[in-house]
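Quick question, first post here. What does this chain look like in 3D?
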Amino acid sequence: MPDNSESPNRLARRKQRTRTALVKAAQRLIAEGRVNVPVLEITQAADVGMGSFYNHFESKEQLFEAAVADVLDAHGAMLDRLTASIDDPAETFATSFRLTGRLFRQRPQESEILLANGPALLSSERGLAPRALRDIKAGVDAGRFQIDDPELALAIAGGALLGLGKLLRDDPHRDDARAADTVTENVLRLFGLSADEAHAVCRRPLPDDTFAEA
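> Answer (accepted):
Ran it through. Tokens below.
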């Protein structure tokens, strides 16, 4: 008789595909503001069986948490990759802020997820917040930022970023790149850079492959 059993590697890949499908379906629902749907609707959107859901998640709340974490981890990894060669912590911070500002138009689904979870993300240990705090502290240590309270500075920058995202969502005709750079300039000035230097930092070219898909 033929052996119909799956190899461990093949089984693991199949489980990962199922989990990925559930996470992607949850991300679409979050972006649409539909977080109160039943599990059955989630599994139908993911094209997987109901039983498969509970092989991966105990509840839809756990799934939605994983979906948000996936977006944060991917965005954080992108920022780390694109800023790895920058030595100036002020420019590292500015580049991450400028890139994230452009994300609101370039990746609208991720943007909606970020905006829907905005306040919680400011204290998250994943994604943009911990990296921004790291860069703010590095800027202080290097004498680039004149800040007494890095956590308060992070809250100010995060509020500015979320406000920018909402404005770009509500005003589709606004120039997203110009708006992102203007907000970044103002945040840098608030952190202690001169107007000329903040302007110069925000005019430096960004990586060409910013929103290339992995």
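Residues 69 and 159 are 20 Å apart (CA to CA).
The radius of gyration is 20 Å.
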